[in-house]
Structure formats: C-alpha cells, structure tokens
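User: Show me a protein chain along with its predicted structure.
Assistant: Here is one chain, sequence first, then structure tokens.
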Amino acid sequence: MRKIVILLMGAVVTTMFAMARKVEITTPGTTLLLSAPEGGSLKYLYYGEKLKATDVKSVIEVEKAKNDVYPAYGLSCQREAALAVKHSDGNMTLDLRVAGVAEKKETDYTLTRITLKDKEYPFTVDVCYKAYSTVDIIEMWSEITNGEKKAVVLNQFASAYLPIRRGNVWLSSLYGKWANEARLCEEPLNPGMKVIKNKDGVRNSQTAHAEVMFSLDGKARENTGRIIGAALCYSGNYRLTIDTDESDWHHFFAGINEDNSTYNLRSGETMVTPPLAVTYSNEGASGASRNFHKWGRKYRLANGDKLRKILLNSWEGVYLNIKESEMYQMMEDIASMGGELFVMDDGWFGDKYPRNVDNSSLGDWVVDKRKLPHGIEGLLAEAKKKGIKFGIWYEPEMSNTVSELYEAHPDWVIKAPKRDLVLGRGGTQVVLDLGTPKVQDFIVGLFDDLMTKYPEIDYVKWDANSSIMNHGSNYLTADNQSHLYIAYHQGFENVCRRIRAKYPDLTIQACASGGGRVNWGVLPYFDEFWASDNTDALQRVYIQWGTSYFFPAIAMASHISATPNHTTHRSVPLKYRIDVAMSGRLGMEMQPKDMTDEEKDLCRRAIADYKEIRPVVQHGDIYRLVSPYDNKGLASLMYVDEMKQKAVFFWWKTEHFYDQHFPRVAMAGLDATKSYRVREINRIDKKPLAFEGKVFTGEYLMANGLEIPYNFDLDWHKRTDLCSRVLYLEEVK
C-alpha cells in the first residue's frame, strides 16, 4: 500500500479495541469528548476546559451528539462537508461508520486513531488526534485510504472539522500584503460563510494566515475569557471555512485548498492531510498564544530550546552591491557592538551572469570573485578573526531565465504546456518544479555542496520571492496536473527534511518576500522567520503584535534598521527602533558605518542588555497588555519566565500629540506573592525614572502598573516624538 504523506508528524498505532462508546482525549487543561459507537457515526460531544470524571459521565448522558466529527458528502448534501469523493463507478456518496479505535501512549503525547469505513466501498478514513501531555494542544488530521481497485477522485479533503456553539463568538484572524503582514482583524461571526484562503502556491502567509482564534465571550480580551485557537500546519495553499448556517453552530473546516487541486487517489494509496493544531484557554487570547508558543518551542520549531544569536544582515545596508571590503567592515562593526553573527544577503553569486540586479543569476550558486576575490573562505576567516559567526543568503527554489541553470534545464521550471512562461520578479524569475525528484536532488545537492565546502557557515537565510503564476508540470502526468500545488509542497518538505537531517544544528531562516512563510508547516525545518521586509519600527509594532498571536518571539526576527526607513520613509528615534526589535529575536539591518559614535554606543549597550534579558524574551510566556489595534495611542506587552522570577515589560507610543492622555498599564503574569526590583533597559533620559531600582510586589504591579512618562527627558535638540520603554523586573528574595 502506497501512502501519500502531507507535512505530518505522527506515529503508527499498534493496538485496536472495538465497541468504543466514547473517546476521551485530554491534555493537562482540556478535554475533547467524542461519541464513537461501533458501526455508528462518529460525533462531537464536547471540547473545552478539562472535565472531571463526573462531568464526563453526565455529558455523555445529557448532551445530544449532533455534529459528525468528519462530515462526508453524499447522504447529507445540504451541509458543508470535510470529505467529498467520486468513486471509480461514478458514485459521489460516502457513508462512513466507526470500525475501531486505537490508542498509543508515548512519553509526551497520546495518539488516538478512529477508523471510519464506508458501508459499501473498501474506502476508509482514519481520524487522528495527537494530544500532548505537557501543553494544551491537540493536533488533528485525517488519513484517507483507497482500497478500491481503481482511483478515487478526492474533491474535498479537509484536515479537520470543529463545531463551535453559536453565541457572542468573535473571530481573530490575520491579513495583509507585502510590507504590511499579519494585520489583526477582529470581527463577530454572523450568519453566512467566512473563508480565509491562500492560492500563492509557494508563500502562504503574506495576504492571510492559516491560523485563527475564536473568542466565545465577545470580542477577545488578552488575559481573560474563553478562546479556541487553531493553526493549520501546512506550507502550501489552504482554506479555512466557517459556515454559520441555520443551526446553533459555527462549522469550522480547515485543510488544503482544493481549488484546482483535485486529487486522484490511486488504489492502495493513503493521503495524510496536514495537522490542525487546536488549543483552548480560559485566559484570553494571550493564554491561547502561550499554549501555541510552548508547544511550538518544545515540539514544532527547529532548535526551539536554543537561544538565537544577535546578528547584522547586509541587505538594507548595501542591497545587491556586495563588496568584500564592506563585508569585512560590517563584520568589524557588529563585532565591536557585541553582535554574534554577520549575514551576507543577496548579490554574492553569479559567474556568466553576475547578480548585480534582481533579474538574473538565481540557480547559479557560485561566488562572484569580482565582488569577493577571496571568496567565502575569506569571509569565514575574517568572521573568525572578529570572533563572530558567518551566514549567507540563498533562494534555492527559484531561477531566472537569465541564468546558466535555466539554459541547461528549461524543463525544470513550472510552466503550462503550449503556453509562454509567466515571469515574476525582475521580469525573469521562474519557480523550479519541486514536485520533480531531480529538482529536489539538485537543491539538496547544492545545499550539501555549500555546507561541505564551507562547514563553518552558521546561518542560512532561505528566501522565496515568487508565486506559482502558471499551472503546469513537466514531471506530472497529464491526468495528474491538478496535483501540482500538493506535489510542490511534498517536494519542498522532502528537501527540507533531508537537509535538516544532515545539518540539525545549522540556523535556517524562512524568508519569503518578507513574511510569506510564517506557518507551523515549515518551522520544524526552520529556526526562525523574517516577519516582514518592512523594518519601520512603528509599523513593526503592529506586524509583530499580530504575529505573536501564534508564533513565539524566539522565531520572530526583528531588526534595528536605518532612518528614514527604506519602505515607509518614516524617521523613528533609534531608542524606539531598538526597543521594538528587542521584543523579538534582536538583529540589525543597516550599514553601521553610516551611524554616529553615539548611535553605535547606544546599540552596544542595547546588545549587552539584550543578552541579559534574552532568555526571558525568547523562552518566556507572553502577556499582551494593551493592543495597538485598540487605538489608545500605545501598545504594551511583557514576557515572564517560567518560574516568575524575571520579566521584561515593553511600552511603545503609537501616536504623538500635544496634551496626550494614555491609560496606565497594569502588568500580568507575575507572582502576586513575590517582590520585584525594576530597572529600565536602554535608558537615554538625563535622569533615571522615579521607580528605577525600587521594589514592588507582583500584586501591586498587576493591579496598578507603573506610571510611564510619555516623553523622554532630553536636551531640547535631542527630543523626539515617539517614546518607548523597556523595564526589566527581577525577583527580590
């Protein structure tokens, strides 16, 4: 039997038992309760806060199981379906019944597999649940197996379905575009259909995200209220659908976007859909975020337990104008400021076609010796001399028609038969067909050659700057052209899996025209992501706020850039730019030689301070306090370590007017019984703040907060509009 696996981290179940009446799936704080009568329909009973045994018994006796766990099309045509097929004889119906339940306990999770079989056809669906014992996350997915003699056409094949009881339910989701990613949208769920989708083909989080939160108590609050969160762990096209029909339910479906992706499931094949990670919290949106962050750091993110380095990236400093002398100079500058890593961005490669502009050379990954006479070896030697690590930019999924690679292998690119190429960035960019095994081997081989030749490379920035803009594969057969998008991401995962298996400790960043690959499908193979090409600190407050709903600070690259900003042309004070960057994985994105000595000194002190607070920011629990989207003129959040001994508090103005009045921000997440000494990080005021060095109880800080001055205390000629503060709290015993 051939199995098609789509971005799944699962296990094989070994024990079966029959006649199951209920299935109880639990995490430390949640319960999912299902009705699973042998030969009957698999139904939802309950999902939410963890139930006591008495309540489990009563729920089973009292609650009416109205909603199928995995609704199939054909015998209930008026309802939305998770699965819709066409059998080889043309029949378009399914009648799925419970055939058995299997459970396997592992150290950190329990895997439950419920097998559904069609009454007439040899066609089965395993509905799978991976419930973690250390975090409140359940991963849900389906495994669809064709036991028939001929192919079955899959028209719909969702990963999971979840009914949510109607009431005052609000939806939180993320939307945007290039340089304005992860904007937070909060809206009530009303009758009708809400669809969140992606059809880019390569990048799936630039214009929308495959993650949502449902607030069950009206508009979401940050640290109180019931929240259900869901994140589809997939790197390709997706569709999230919420159907609010005439019933008492919002019907939530999540999975691969089936548009132009009809799948022909051959005899003996199994399709494994990508997991949907689901959480419940009664501690508001921040509580749901903390669940996702803990799960991600421990189980999903590459090297999620390791602190990330402070780096300087060359892109906004020199763009494509790579010069060896400037690379050495930038290394000297970041080393002198206490940085730990230098990353050389785009522009370093190309022989026959040098990479001087963005319309050539992709695929020709050879060093341009005209720019770098001493090659990568020289850069590595210089970095070692400066006591820092070295990283490099790479875009292996793409090529240009102006390249030696395209001249040799024009059949390797995605192209519609009988049609002219549709070209992307620079008027020449094309996407390699990752569904082709030879292309996969080529990319893995290139990466392996790079790392074998230069094993001291510490960091790779993996970019992807084009969509799939025309539909066609030279590898797929004519009758399977609809598999293009799925095959691409199967190939992409195969490439990533092979690379990560050989280089487990290498830091790899997922960059895709900025924030185009911020998803839990890629992060098992990547250590971090580039949230946006927009490094304007004020706009980054909004971008990083939305991103933090589902992704932890350790994975969020956040860089101090030059002013005026290269995207918005806004001038923002350096102190503010530092304070925003410190709330993620701190880095720099500028040419340091253009900085004054005073600016370099401020960055030097900030980097030293960040090294002290880095464990709390990167591994701590997030508590968002005041949202920039609430239009109160400020934004504030904090991170608290697991033992509640240390915390970092961030406060940023988001607008500036004369005679402003801001709310005083109460803190959260501290231990009410502990006392904390307060110290300001990155202070530039002439005098310390009134509470500098003072000790307060956690109870006081969470009830009252501290009075934050609206402006900096500076000499007249140094005063600025946007003010920001970072406070470090340490327990006093």
